[in-house]
Amino acid sequence: MFDLKWIRENPEAFDAGMARRGVPPQAARVAELDARRRALIGENQDLQQRRNAASKQIGAAKSRGEDAAGQIADVAELKQRLQDGEAGEKTVSAEIGELLAGLANIPLDEVPDGLDDTTNQEVRRVGEPRTYDFEPKQHFELGEALGLMDFEAAAAMSGARFVVLKGAMARLERALSAFMLDLQTGENGYTEVSPPFLVRDDAMFGTGQLPKFADDLFRTEDGFWLIPTAEVPLTNLVRGQILDESDLPRRVTAHTPCFRSEAGSAGKDTRGMIRLHQFSKVELVSISRPEDSDAELERMTGCAEEVLKRLDLAYRVMLLSAGDMGFSARKTYDLEVWLPGQNAYREISSCSNCGDFQARRMNARYRRAGEKGTRFVHTLNGSGLAVGRTLVAVVETHQNADGTVTVPEALRPYMGGVELIGPA
């Protein structure tokens, strides 16, 4: 959401930000609606004052024993006009809210221009892709040959874009999530949270999934939404709160299942575990002061990178262009891991600074020491990491010529000392 006062005072900057998102100018329409709203507020205040004055006149007339029928009729008319005016104000305010709720966050100046991933900028590469003396296979080829990934069984019970992991592969998934959580909580200062996986409309609205992206979500018959990411419940922990400055930054993490309908992705990654309806992820969320959020984004990205480094996975960091960022983000780094089976880098994490965009939708504020007023916090989120895609990267990167998979040293304590994943 946006500050109406800022839009009024900076219409050209607002439209320039929308243009970078591929959205036509909106400032004039916002200004028109806001002018109508403010005019109605002024008219309603005038009507209320006149109604109060007329009511006092009725009381005075009655105390003098005079006929007050005329004043009573005037008050009734003013009451009706006030009700109509308040209804009009409510309608215009709702129209403004609906318009602004559908507009994505404005990119920061350092974010590259462009409407898709072709204009993303590579920031750095870490690690060299492993070379093989054999043709590396994709993860689903390895997993199925080992008898540890079963896509057919999953499809029989749930349809496409699901998988059943078995034996050592299921344990590898569990090991990855435990390793990630221990790293983020034990070394990087995040507090582990176990949040709900079902949330209401206002939680989804607060982080920007609603109203624009309802088709990408799953909803229960009684009105709950299955979370597409733990960003939703973790960020909403501060919804409607006023935090003390001394409480910031607040850093939380959670391992949760995530549910996405993958609307619009027909034909993309139809085989394997890259794009599933249900997957697990370790999410990182930070709540910070505005002046700290840029540094917090760099820190969060580093926390996510450390997982890849310790698993000996080659990756690159990409600064996303304005049109390729998520709806709520004003700056995003993607981590893309090298997958030898695909001979390509694929996204495994997105770390975003949302500024005060989500905070305004959630009314999440903080109070500076010694100040009476409040300010909106800044919110940040990132994957630390997507567990399924990390499993894919581990299996493909550490595969052997005989189809077995070597377990990275960092994961062996979580695998009961197992060093090699072989056939079931």
Order of helices and strands: HHHHEHEHEHEEHEEHEEEHEEEHEEEHEE
Reported CATH architecture of the largest domain: 2-Layer Sandwich
Fourth CATH level, the homologous superfamily of the largest domain = Bira Bifunctional Protein, Domain 2
Number of domains: 2
The poorly predicted ranges are none
| Mean pLDDT, all residues | 95
CATH class of the largest domain: Alpha Beta
Helicity range of the residues? 25-40%
Largest sheet: 8 strands, mixed
Number of strands: 18
Tally of helical runs: 12
Rounded to an integer, what's the Rg over CA atoms?
A: 27 Å
The CA-CA distance between the termini, in Å, is: 51 Å
How do the helices and strands line up, and which of them pair or pack?
Layout: H1 4-9, H2 11-20, H3 27-63, H4 69-101, E1 121-126, H5 139-146, E2 149-150, H6 151-158, E3 164-165, H7 167-186, E4 191-192, E5 198-199, H8 201-207, E6 218-219, E7 225-226, H9 231-235, E8 242-244, E9 250-259, E10 278-288, H10 293-310, E11 315-319, E12 331-339, E13 344-353, H11 357-362, E14 365-367, E15 375-376, E16 378-386, H12 387-397, E17 405-406, E18 420-421
Parallel strand pairs: 4-9, 8-14
Antiparallel strand pairs: 1-11, 2-3, 5-7, 6-7, 9-10, 10-16, 11-12, 12-13, 13-16, 14-15, 17-18
Helix pairs in contact: 3-4, 5-12, 7-12
